[in-house]
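Posting this for the archive.
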Amino acid sequence: MSTESENIITLYDIPTAKGAETWSPNVWRVRMTLNYKRLPYKTQWVEYPDIGKVGQEIGAKPTTPNPDGSGTLLWTCPMLVDPTHLDASGKPTVLSDSLVIVKYLDAVYPERKVIEDGTDALHAAWAAFIWQNLTGKIVNLVVPLCPNILSERSREYFVATREKWWGPLADMCPDRVKVWAEVQNGLDKIATALNANDFTLVAPLFWVSSIVGKDELDALESWNGGRWRKIMDLHQASGVLKIQ
């Protein structure tokens, strides 16, 4: 007889030395999606040296070529098993790669979508922008420090594999002050892009408000808990609408 815990989604995550703590940004992406969608799930914690074995056991696909040039493939976390939706062979759905998992969750559990229909290209462009201006810059800052939070087994595996791929971790970021300055500059660009996106959103709202009748405008302003009226009011108060 199956138990209730066997019939909910399982998320595979990497623990810290303290135990059940999420730290990987890729796993966070899926965990936040599950929580945002209010889906019941459980976590299976997997130490770094065991990820490949566990991935093969559950039938997950490897996600990336091994950077050591061996031609082999690597399994990574997150991985996810959904026993409530069966694949073509009648087995629980098994997925790997955070973006693949998020898209699956949006498709199968469409309430509270993370990536709205028809926005894949926009989402991909935004993700690339974030990588270029933030994530790609902090890799050299963060990776050398990751061993500090891992268990002894995972720490030894992490250091051995990463140094085989990239050389000594201590040499990844010789000038942290310089890289932090680059991160700050990247965040400035992201903030500017967010402001621009706000204007892209707000411009048609004000266009509508200047054209349609009161009843239609009142309806629009009431949607989503009055969110659009609040956004318009904030922009009105900021002075960006003044005419010179």
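The beta strands are 9-13, 41-45, 64-65, 73-74, 79-86, 92-96. The radius of gyration is 23 Å.
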